[in-house]
Specification:
It contains 18 helices and 21 strands. Helix 15 links the parallel strand 19 and strand 20.
């Protein structure tokens, strides 16, 4: 469904439109596959974490869904950090506090839309809403909920003391029962069967947070490796049997594989920046490419591949929808000269996204060894030139697994385990995933990218005082 922005910094979707689009995608997938729908053994959904889906007692949306890149509740997150709430809850929530978490958004809705809160009955994540539409059952899956700041992650359960610390204690009854990723928690209803083409009665399992789904689909069952997902959000992650609790890491959540936790550094600073650039400045190219039955992304990739990393010194900050530096940081293109081409500007966008991911990686490497390779998924992984920039800037081999919609494959892995096609996640991942091409780093490019990455941070430090002036938005 289309994202709308009713006010600056707000990002919302219509849940009914999301459901209708999901149904259309399911019908299309069944038709394209050529299978008999009676062969479908199980269903699972994966979806983005955080944001907020509020529904009433009948499961109807209480308001438009709020996206995970929404910024309206920034003041709540800032206040909780300043007042020491973060220090008190961190040993249990194991993650930072930020504006688009349900904690901050619930406080905002309570204070600004009391009529919505009066009719809201349940707090859901995006894929939990879809599962509810498939089954009619209300529940919350644990990997997703463990990334919301609403539960005790090491204990794997809700904790009223966390809600009390945020001043949300009266919302305890809005938290749905927790289910495991592979747990069967309903069946496709007659209504959902008619809408999707999936036969009535097919089991539906809990599903998972999209970062877990991409991790599983890329083969992340080994602690030696790391996973990088480059989409709207840039997620950089690894797994371990013990949770990491530190202010130096963005989030620790529960992984889909029992007995493992997922350590994540992420922010909305990734390939979504290219989407915006194309929408605002490449509309004509996108139209012309479509008429040639070509993707506009191929056009962008050719323009970037036609430049060299040493050709230009343009720096791009990919902070259109948020920052991994500080809350006040804004996007910027710095260093553009008259001789620069569109290819140089696009290269700066690609490199800025890479440098944002590298910033996250360096934070993670304070807590673990350098990985033997990166398992790379997301939109940027479909671009050979972007993958090369990643590998050269990181000086780590990047493996791109076979397949395109790897989040959907991760959900299918959960369904396969849940209905007994495989005994556990390791077995399912081994059977259902395939390693793809590997982009080896070019050691001759290391010095160039190290220099550009250092400049990226030097320019940020120079601009930080300007971004953080009072009333910067009004100036």
């Amino acid at each position: 469904a289309k994202i709308v922005s009713p006010q600056p910094g707000w990002r919302e979707r219509d849940p009914e439109a999301t459901w209708e689009n999901t149904c259309a995608a399911i019908r299309e997938a069944i038709q394209a596959s050529g299978i008999d729908p009676a062969e479908i053994a199980g269903v699972a959904a994966a979806g983005y974490g955080n944001g907020l889906h509020l529904v009433d007692a009948e499961g109807r949306p209480a308001r438009p869904a709020i996206e995970s890149s929404d910024g309206r509740a920034a003041a709540y997150a800032e206040r909780w950090v300043a007042e020491g709430v973060w220090d008190r809850v961190l040993p249990k929530t194991t993650q930072t506090i930020w504006p688009a978490q349900p904690t901050a958004l619930l406080a905002w809705v309570r204070d600004h839309e009391p009529e919505v809160m009066a009719r809201a009955r349940w707090i859901l994540m995006a894929k939990d809403y879809i599962r509810m539409r498939l089954t009619g059952e209300i529940c919350a899956e644990i990997t997703d909920m463990s990334g919301t700041g609403l539960m005790d992650v090491p204990a794997g359960q809700y904790d009223d003391s966390i809600l009390e610390a945020f001043g949300l204690e009266d919302m305890s009854a809005m938290l749905p029962p927790l289910v495991r990723t592979e747990e069967i928690c309903g069946e496709v209803t007659a209504e959902a069967a008619e809408a999707t083409g999936i036969p009535q009665g097919v089991p539906v399992v809990g599903g998972m947070f999209d970062i877990d789904a991409c991790g599983l689909a890329s083969g992340l069952v080994d602690e030696r490796w790391m996973s990088l997902v480059s989409g709207t959000w840039g997620n950089n992650q690894y797994i371990a049997p013990e949770p990491l609790v530190s202010k130096g890491i963005y989030m620790t959540s529960r992984y889909a594989m029992p007995g493992f936790y997922l350590m994540l550094e992420g922010s909305p600073t990734s390939a979504g920046n290219l989407e915006w650039f194309i929408q605002e400045f490449f509309a004509a190219e996108a139209k012309a490419a479509a008429e040639r039955d070509e993707s506009v992304y191929d056009v962008c990739n050719r323009l970037v591949a036609g430049t060299n990393p040493e050709d230009g010194d343009i720096t791009f900050f990919p902070f259109l929808y948020g920052s991994n530096m500080d809350a006040g940081a804004r996007s910027a293109l710095i260093g553009v000269r008259g001789e620069h081409t569109r290819g140089h500007v696009l290269r700066a966008v690609y490199e800025g996204v890479v440098f944002s991911h590298r910033t996250h990686l360096e934070r993670l490497l304070k807590f673990r060894d350098r990985p033997e390779r990166m398992l790379f998924t997301g939109g940027a992984a479909q671009s050979p030139i972007w993958t090369k920039i990643f590998a050269d800037a990181f000086q780590i081999p990047f493996e791109i697994p076979e397949g395109r919609e790897l989040g959907a494959l991760g959900a299918a892995i959960a369904a396969a385990v849940g209905v007994g096609c495989y005994g556990d996640f390791r077995e399912a991942v081994g059977a259902m995933t395939r390693p793809g091409r590997v982009q080896e780093p070019d050691p001759d490019q290391k010095e160039i990218y190290d220099h550009k990455y250092a400049r990226y941070h030097q320019l940020y430090e120079a601009l930080a005082p300007i971004w953080n002036r009072p009333n910067v938005m009004a100036s």
